[in-house]
């Protein structure tokens, strides 16, 4: 039957046997080396973050963090106890960014952020003489591509997601923020500029010194890890005394001929805003998972009578079916697949499906999500391989901290990712590798890096 042919074909094209995943992991490790070798050496940019000291748990004092990633931004304040007392208290506030500011001017956006930050500080410090004349220290998580030359500066390369503020491109976002804070009369110093992957790494490392990498599987995907400073040939400056440097991989742009790219992925890429770019991200992140399934269901409907006579408007709308919908259908454990029935009806206007048809939809979700998770695991295996921590050389405990909505909310994805990583490493080596969910890394990570950077500065 036509529908079974479509599914069988999908299953075959999405297959990720261990041999293929090992090739992907090896290619990731090779690209990492090539990207470290010289500027432009790989599609995986391997950017220097200029974070050469990660938090240890001994940091002390009051620090602020600011997290600007998608549609909201978060401000937070942490009081660090020092001597492994860790976070004594924390307060945070989430603020929605008015949509008109996402395409306005740079000074409007940063003005808004600074004024919200000033309000937060005023509320938090009410009735205290907290600042006692000292400048407050702030870490800024900014999850858009920036080119950095120091830990506390970076010029915006381009906007992504829903942002497009032309006059900010090419400017130093730290200087923009600093100016806006001054206008608010807010005495605050930006001690670090990082992205969410670096923040996740720092947030987890603060509690556990065996953390080697921070990875995001959310709307997009990215990874950051700790590299030996003398293993970065492209670095021309003076090597840091710590002997270490956090690398922001920007691994979403990874590509290898071993990646199982199907006709659906190809069409998605061709019709995307950035054709030919971010291929690994298009195969492994939340923004695209639902869209791939939508394309499969559309083909299924056009080539077979499985959904009956339906109006294809919704099914033809790009990005109409979203990853949380896929997750809900995939986790449906009712005997007659009630959730699947509801989602198909509500979102795609496909009503009156048979149980057989709904099972087929679940199978499609499973095929696509499993491929996402297995390719994600291969990426992690690639990092461990590059570090010699895949059990081949170094037998120390190694922790990978992961954050992002896909990992956090799609449990079949996160379980499959972990199982696959164990499968790739083998039983013996898996014992040394821990994958853990790092909650709110991107929020608190910046404040912690601000803490370790400023304490470093004070000592010098
Ligand atoms: P961002 O990456 O924008 O900072 P998050 O880390 O919160 O944001 O990730 C949001 C993404 O996580 C969404 O785009 C979606 O793809 C995915 N996601 C959110 N909720 C769920 C869910 N219930 N099931 C599966 N995926 C989800
Ligand atoms: Mg985020």
Helix content: 40-55%
- Number of domains as seen in the coordinates: 2
At CATH's second level, what is the architecture of the largest domain? 3-Layer(aba) Sandwich
- Bound ions, cofactors and other small molecules, one mention each: adenosine-5'-diphosphate, magnesium ion
Q: H/E element string?
A: HHEEEEHEEEHEHEEEHHHHHHEHHEH
* Percent of sequence in beta strands: 15-25%
Regions with little confidence, pLDDT below 50 for 5+ residues: none
Gyration radius (Cα, Å) is 23 Å
CATH topology of the largest domain: Hexokinase, domain 1
**Biggest β-sheet: count, sense, barrel?**
6 strands, mixed
Describe the structure.
It comes from Triticum aestivum (Wheat). The protein is α/β, with parallel strands linked by helices and 460 residues long. The protein folds into 2 domains: 1-47 and 196-440, 3-Layer(aba) Sandwich (Hexokinase, domain 1); 50-194, Nucleotidyltransferase, domain 5, CATH 3.30.420.40. The chain is 43% helix and 18% strand. The chain is built from 14 helices and 13 strands. The protein has helices at 2-13, 18-37, 106-124, 173-183, 196-205, 263-270, 279-284, 286-303, 323-330, 338-348, 355-386, 405-409, 411-430, 441-459; strands spanning 47-48, 60-68, 72-81, 87-96, 136-142, 146-150, 153-156, 188-194, 211-217, 221-228, 244-248, 398-403, 433-437. The protein is globular and about 75 Å long. The mean pLDDT is 93. The site of adenosine-5'-diphosphate has 15 residues, from α8, α9 and α12.
């Amino acid at each position: 039957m036509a529908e079974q042919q479509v599914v069988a074909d999908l299953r075959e094209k999405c297959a990720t046997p261990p041999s293929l995943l090992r090739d992907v992991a090896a290619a990731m490790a090779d690209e990492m080396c090539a990207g470290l070798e010289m500027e432009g050496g790989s599609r995986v940019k391997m950017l220097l973050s200029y974070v050469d000291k990660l938090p240890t748990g001994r940091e002390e004092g009051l620090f602020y963090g600011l997290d600007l990633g998608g549609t909201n931004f978060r401000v937070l304040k942490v009081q660090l106890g020092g001597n492994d007392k860790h976070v004594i208290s924390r307060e945070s506030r989430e603020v929605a960014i008015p949509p008109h500011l996402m395409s306005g001017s740079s000074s409007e956006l940063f003005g808004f952020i600074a004024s919200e930050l000033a309000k937060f500080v005023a509320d938090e410090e009410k009735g205290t003489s907290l600042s006692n004349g000292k400048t407050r220290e702030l870490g800024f998580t900014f999850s858009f591509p920036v080119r950095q030359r120091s830990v506390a500066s970076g010029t915006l390369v381009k906007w992504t997601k829903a942002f497009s503020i032309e006059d900010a491109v090419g400017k130093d976002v730290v200087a923009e923020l600093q100016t806006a804070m001054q206008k608010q009369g807010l005495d605050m110093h930006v001690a670090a500029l990082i992205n969410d992957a670096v923040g996740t790494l720092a947030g987890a490392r603060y509690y556990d010194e065996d953390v080697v990498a921070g990875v995001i599987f959310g709307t997009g995907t990215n990874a950051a890890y700790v590299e030996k400073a003398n293993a970065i040939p492209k670095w021309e400056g003076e090597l840091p005394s710590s002997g270490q440097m956090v690398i922001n991989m920007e691994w979403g742009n990874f590509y290898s001929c071993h990646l199982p790219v199907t006709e659906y992925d190809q069409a998605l890429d061709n019709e995307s805003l950035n054709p030919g770019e971010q291929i690994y991200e298009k195969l492994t992140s939340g923004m695209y998972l639902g869209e791939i399934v939508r394309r499969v269901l559309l083909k299924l409907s056009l080539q077979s009578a499985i959904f009956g006579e339906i109006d294809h408007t919704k099914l033809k709308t790009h990005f109409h079916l979203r990853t949380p919908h896929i997750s809900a259908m995939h986790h449906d454990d009712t005997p007659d697949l009630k959730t699947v029935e509801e989602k198909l009806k509500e979102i795609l206007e496909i009503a009156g499906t048979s149980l057989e048809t709904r099972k087929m939809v679940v199978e499609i979700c499973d095929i696509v999500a499993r491929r996402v998770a297995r390719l994600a695991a291969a990426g992690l295996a690639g990092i461990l391989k590059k570090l010699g921590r895949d059990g081949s050389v170094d037998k120390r405990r190694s922790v990978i901290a992961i954050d992002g909505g896909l990992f956090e909310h799609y449990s079949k994805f996160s379980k499959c990712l972990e199982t696959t990583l164990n499968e790739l490493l083998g039983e013996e080596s898996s014992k040394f590798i821990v994958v853990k969910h790092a909650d709110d890394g991107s929020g608190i990570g910046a404040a912690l890096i601000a803490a370790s950077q400023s304490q470093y500065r004070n000592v010098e």
